[in-house]
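Hi there, hope your week has been kind to you so far. Do you reckon you could talk me through the fold, stretch by stretch? Thanks so much in advance, here it is.
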Amino acid sequence: MNDEALLNRSQTHNPAQAFPLAHLMPWAALAVLLAMLAIYFVGAEQGATSLLAGNNVHEFVHDGRHALGFPCH
């Protein structure tokens, strides 16, 4: 590359464009919903309330439940 090409390349700067908050809200709502669902399954499923019969979910998240401080026994 010659000096002129380097100079032109360094002078072309594309400023960051504004990202509307309205475009972020559906993704933020989905993230909150998934986090709440994960907390439910780790903290409450197969406990006092249960959506699924059996003990499979409880055993699957058992160690994580204790690591996060949720009592289960």
About this structure: The two ends are 70 Å apart (CA to CA).
